[in-house]
């Protein structure tokens, strides 16, 4: 009897232990969520000076461009330059056949010398030092006028650079008959380059002379050249644009006159938080940024005050030092579980 009772007690104890032990081992709910967490990358929001960029397209120009012409007809005798030649102010570019004008100039000089001798003889005769009447009587006044005329005609047979620069568009060949209507070459002032461009009238109030700029060619957009805004035309044209001009301050560039370029005017903004553009997503047509907080994604509506190529300036919704999510945030929800990856 006692033996049966012991067996019953032992069976009861075993059954109780089996009831307490679960048949399968399950992970807690929080561990499940962590295992399904979305992998994200984060960056820090920074309270720093932000440069808003006003973008446009423009063209490179030399500050001065001159079309070189002769002032009289004649046969082109000699060309001293080639396309790309750098000439200094006053250097000859080309000359016409000028033997006749050279002879006339020499004859005029001889005539002046003869008239001067006669004038000096009359001064002695009439005992006068300086007498306009004697200059006329001796023929000196007329001879000097003819000499000036001969000198001008001879000088006009030699085409000289009106300022220092680079030769372009050299056209005529020697031996050709040319007239004042014919352009011999174009002279480009190459002391520095300028860029001309336009912006919408809505941006006019934001711009000031001296604003810093960046310029890049279309064929090599990765190379940025520095520039400064020098001229703002206070007039809106028929297409709603304001014309601007800037000076390229880089000493050496790969830019040349007439080249099409991209232009960015940089406007500094203060008291804003700067974040990468990849941090911003749309929710209900509103700008949203997710921050990282102890394994959760927390969404914030933000106000964008400006943008440039890579970043946004946030004036409301974030603070300096916030850890913002910059990847895999397209389909994130508020309080979603996330895991930081490198």
Structure description:
The chain is 23% helix and 39% strand. It is an alpha+beta fold and 342 residues long. Among the domains are: 35-49 and 272-340, conserved putative lor/sdh protein from methanococcus maripaludis s2 fold, CATH 2.40.420.20; 54-63 and 192-269, Beta Barrel (Elongation Factor Tu (Ef-tu), domain 3), CATH 2.40.30; 99-156. Helix 3 (99-126) crosses helix 4 (132-138) and helix 3 runs antiparallel to helix 5. It is rod-shaped and about 120 Å long. It starts with a helix and ends with a strand.
Give the structure's gist in a few sentences:
The chain has helices spanning 2-20, 29-35, 99-126, 132-138, 140-156; strands at residues 38-40, 42-44, 46-47, 50-61, 65-68, 74-79, 86-87, 92-96, 158-160, 165-168, 177-178, 185-188, 193-200, 212-217, 225-236, 241-248, 260-269, 273-276, 280-283, 286-293, 296-301, 303-307, 311-316, 323-325, 336-340. With 342 residues, the chain is α+β, with helices and mostly antiparallel strands. The model is unreliable at 19-29 (pLDDT under 50).
